[in-house]
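Subgroup meeting minutes
Present: P.N., E.W., G.H.
Scribe: E.W.

1. P.N. recapped why we're keeping a running log of single-chain structure predictions: easier to compare across weeks, and new members can see raw inputs and outputs side by side.
2. G.H. added today's entry (254 aa).
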Amino acid sequence: MSKVSFENLLEAGVHFGHLKRKWNPAMAPYIFEEKKGIHIIDLNKTIAHLDQACAAMKQIAKSGKKVLFVATKKQAKEIVAQKVTEVNMPYVTERWSGGMLTNFQTTRKSIRKMSSIDKMKTDGTWETLNKRERLFKTRQREKLEKNFGSIADMTRQPAAIFLVDILKEHIALNEAKRLNIPTFAMVDTNSNPKLVDFPIPANDDATKSITIILDAICGAIREGLEDRKSTKGADKDEAPEAVATEVATEENKD
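Output recorded in log:
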């Protein structure tokens, strides 16, 4: 569960939506009231949906699958990079390259190209290149690192995708929906929550709001990873006993 209180969300400003004139009518069930021309999000609904999202995220992490986080807006980039790196999940905080998911094989080729340049520096090939070629390869490597470095370990399509601001990340959202990848997202009062499988009604512009939601989501992932680790550990502990039982059974047969 998210373990985030109503007071925590209130202090972080999660309840502040957009101006009334910018609202999306589909968000009506999640709006508590209008105050001074600004829609106020119902934090009880936020808690309920955050709990659902956290429970699902925990199960995904426990199964050993990856969740891709996408947040290219200025106020979310650093927060996502920091929080998501801690739980070892892939993320995109620079420009979303069209086809990153729908044309995943091309994305993998770009990542392999990055690895091949790295290999050149260790196998001696780098020394055989002239100055101009080295400069070209270095710039190419930097560009690839910027766009694909944070997803280098994502060897297959993610089990789910988490978005901060579905209007900003509409291309990523459309690709995920096209591939039937479960979607999680922070949805503000100007968004359509019906486009997301696990919408979390919340202010997606304030850094404090983004931080508290990401903390809860990453906390659930961490719990799932720990459960997976302990389950594996239990299996290893049981293994010798199972072998001993098997040997004893064979001896009795003899």
